[in-house]
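task queued by scheduler; priority normal; single chain, no ligands, no partner chains; default sampling; output format set to structure tokens
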Amino acid sequence: MAYNWQLPDWPKFTYNIDEVLDLILSCTERIGRLSGMLGAANAEVDREVNIASLLAETLKTSAIEGEYIHRDDLMSSIRNNLGLNTKPEIVRDKRAGGVVRMMLHVRKTFDSALSEKEMCTWHSLLMEGNQYVKAGVWRASSEPMQVVSGAAGREKVHFEAPPSSRVPQEMKAFIEWFNDTAPGGKHAMVHAPLRSALAHLYFESIHPFEDGNGRIGRALSEKALSQYAGNPIIISLSQVIEANEKAYYSALKKGQQSNEVSPWLQYFIGVIDQALRQAEEQIAFTIRKMRFFDNLKDQLNPRQLKVLRKMWEQGPGSFEGGMSAKKYMGITGTSKATATRDLQELSDEGILHPEGEGRSRRYILREC
């Protein structure tokens, strides 16, 4: 079986634009609406949306690659890097700092031209603390770069990338293509979602680094959208992809077998559209959250506010089976009697809804 990079028309991708035009128009409309919503939001809403987006993207982009970084470490790293903590919080998992710093760097430099130096900086940040990967350089091993699955001795090869000797010339061509197709470029693409989808497939097919290609490929897709929007696009492609990884790998595998890429575009532009929709929902959710605390900040004690903020981080009704007196004690460091009294007050006010009795009693957050 020949892969896309082995075909004579590589990397001249062809597609039927009519098959994805409706999706492209939907994405374009959502990008405009998202920019308008953020433009109208106050600084506090903007900050909260950015944090939520970064948390979702860093958490899910690592999970797709089989790395499970604790949510609290990622949140602490985000807050540390944004300068929101008066005293930096301890981050136990060093991988959290690397992936957060890479994503922040990508968003900060969204409008700059792509270069080999820039991409190697992304990789160095991403591989921070990883002693087993040569960071910040193209792969150079003589061994084939393969995407495989299955047990040892029974592996199934899904894709084999170009040999390492070809990577420098392939990446030179990719970087030139990315810059030429950017807004204002020599061959600027009108449709940002189309360029974003092609950039991801093109980059993943070269697979230029020893590790981290998936995460950097998704960052490239985000950069392509941000350049069109004129501001860092606040979405999480990884959150959508991780929800159905099989569909992602299946679409990518098919896309790497031909340079007619209409099916790939249909899949990936659909991912972009869903990520944009989720971003709109996140902004609306954040505004409701701000109003919730504005209405209650003078009525509740600091312990209650701390617990409610913790619950809102995961959304109404979804705090790991509800809030219990034991969890309340752990979060606030208070006694059982105080925890029980505080929770009962929140229930009486209609802020929390009690379920169960005795030791099984849990409190679910109601939206206001």
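post-processing summary
- The longest strand covers residues 156-160.
- The radius of gyration is 23 Å.
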